[in-house]
Amino acid sequence: MGRNTVKSFRVTSLFALAACLALSAQPCLAQETAPQTSTAASETTGVPAWGIVSPDFAPDRDIVFGVLPNGMRYAIQRNTNPAGEAAVRFTVEVGSREETDAENGAAHFVEHMAFNGSTNIAEGELLPLLERLGLAFGADTNAETALDYTTYKLALPNTDENTVDTALEVIREVAGELTLDPEAVERERGIILNEAQVRNDPSRRRIADYLQVALPGSRVGNRVRADVERIRNISAADLRGFYEGYYRPERATLAVVGDFDVAEMKRKIEAEFSDWEGEGSARDPYTGPVSTGDSAVVANFVDPAIPEIIELQRISPWKPSTNTLVEAQGEVLRAIAGIALSNRIAALSRAPDSPTLGAQAIEQPLFRTAEAFGLLIVAKDGQWRDTLALAERELRRATEYGFTAAEIAEAKANIETALRNAVAQSSGRPSAALAEALVRASLDDTVLTSPTDDLAFYQAIEPGITAETVSSAFQTAWNEGPSIVHVSTKQPIEGGEEAIASALEESTAVAVTAPQEAAAVDFAYEEWGAPGEVVFDQTVEDLGIRTVRFANGLQLNLKTTDFEPGKIAFSLRAGTGISGFPADRPGLKEMLPIAMSVDGLEAHDPDELRRALAGKAVVAGLAASSGALVASGTTTPDDLELQLDLLAARLTATAWRPETQSQWAGVAPLLAKNIRSAPIQVFVNAFNSVLAGNDARLGVVDAERLTEVSLADLRAAVAPQLAEGPLALGLVGDIDADAAISAVAATLGTLPARAIRREAGEVTPPIGFVADRSTKVLTHTGQADQGALSVSWPTDDSADLRDDIIRDVLAATIGLRLTEKLREELGSTYSPEAFSYSQRTFDGFGHLTAFATVPPEAMDATASAIRAIADQMAANPVSADLLERARSPIKEGYQRAETQNSAWLDLVAMAQSDVEVLDRRRQRMEILEAITPSDIQSAAQKYIGGQNPLEIRIMPETE
Length: 959
What we know:
Number of domains: 4
Keywords: Hydrolase, Metalloprotease, Protease, Signal
Helix content: 40-55%
Number of helices: 29
Largest sheet: 7 strands, mixed
Organism: Allopontixanthobacter sediminis
Shape: globular
């Protein structure tokens, strides 16, 4: 709860930004380019119930749109993924941009107060009420405040009458019944201050500076980060005024999507919300100024933790959608131009002497205030000038010469495939995604079309999408050049803005030439020899898993489902994973997926591989888990054979190119600085390693050591596992089992024989919980008021299923107590949590950890509170109510997993190599339901009560 997001903008972590742009040929940042569809003249177009007019497009016929007499919009859609569940989204058209200077922080504060008392649900009762129904705080009960909207989210684990009625009652209370009690406001103030501290990261500061420069005189940039002093002083009366001015039915939309009767849901919504009336005077949405000056504004943002990011953007006023075919066609053309330009720069980034790590060209709205079209590009440290020049020249090259037919054909192939797959997979769309799309459509007043109509629209305009039309669309959008040049660096640029402008001017004097047409690429890995022989074929009837083994030792396990039509989830497990990595060489696990995304294959560099795979739904990545190297993802029935070719090529033809080392050398310093820039990042990357005595297989304690690891180190650890490691492949989804077995026989089944895979094995050296329990202090380079604290008790591995599940419930009960004590009572942190970590690779290693983000001065008190809760858990049985609130979300998660391909995948992949996982699946619900308060107390006494835990404190480097 309380994610103060900057929606519709790049709030990507610096890690994701640097790594993704640098090392992936695929787009990294969200693109809202879903095309729409033309409609037969006889069909109703637009959304009359919402007052949305369109001459060309009709909405998805499965959606019921409505508006109450008070003006509140609603949308209802029946959907069965997940089966028996529902997603609720309630969006109010008010965000941080609506705040006056005196109200800075009010939108987010009101969002928090929505969970802290209303007319019919007293303070402190809301979360327990929902927990008893199986909704976990954070995972199933959440909210977000953006610059231009606020959304409340509920994931209902079932759609029985009590759950649905309670959910609608909760949303109705949020809508117009908040009490905003002054004492409750004071209790919540510390939580919001803590969240503001945690959110004050380099990426957010950069975005704030960029928007302040791009939109001078607008509130938008100033509202990316709330003013801490104003949060300290804002009053309940201020919040009341803001709430009554903006939380009004005519500014709200309720979307409910799930497995229920639509007519009955409509009746319930009308009964619950028709009496809602706004209080006091309504306030208008914010419309800020947008400068359209002729000359570009140049700025230098400085932060020692920021990657060198350069933005060349053309800013224009935001225009509401016209929902016309012409508008939608233009969006598609500009999106394709952005993809082509991004791919060009990705190819340039591969060169050893390239100054850039990659770029993203995109058109995007800025919070219904402005629109931006242009380029974001990431430089290697110290190379902003050369990267700026490269960006300027590539933008100019595209303007003067346009794009090639091959570039456009590649993008078109990917778009059409995505749209075709969306049609085939439409009945398996998640309810949450559908609900999110509905409230976005309401905010933007757009027509939400069906996948079938999207494909029809694209096929109608496809003949007109050529190199010439895409080039023309780009030239029209970019012809006047950037209106803002924003350069982020770690140190101030000598000469400041004048130096940036001079570098840009110097670049314009360099002539550019026309791009070269790329040659067609045929995928080189399609012939593998005689198909492998099946030597074992047996079905686990009660779980619906077919287990097959080939003569070469490959284990293939399949489960056919109808959860997500048109999708197949796959997981190939090879070798021993991180358990076989050196214990003293940190960074290998972190480097692996990044390196594999840019290494290509022996016969194809990464750009050739991207072109060869255009229009195919396949994945070529690789990661490391505790017990295996894992290549996983989703594909389609049509592309399964190609996906299997890719998996076989990954095992036999990984290239280990010198260029990969060069790119890693550019990325590693950025990753190290990003990790060190925030306490949460430091903790996530380091804590398991610290608890295991700094074993490098479990994490990176000193992020700077990422710069020491090389491709040669990675190859030494990974290549033998790829070449010789025992194999198991799991397939789950829309599978023709016999056809899949034949396809596997013709690919992975042809490889030389390997040992039969077994997940369990002796790990050398072993891993154990560190003996020295003195407090460990790690440092971060973020703000001086940021910090994080964890308290960890050693437990065990997960071999004993009952004990493992009891520890999960124990951790959940501790998490609830932490929320009550640290968040609700003390108001010292917004993010306390507890979790039980266990696994089956490293014998005896596990822990129960409590974690909170707190400033340095609050760490002693927080640690004492955590220890006191642990002692109380051991001294007294938990109440039946607390146990049920902890158990219910876990139970609902187990039930949800039965209808999700992703939740079956690991189990299916290991169905032969670790047969015990099958019994664990069969038994876990019965064990969970049988847990008693005395079981929780016994586990607390065994593992945490009176035991000596290990504290990890993440402190500012200055301290």
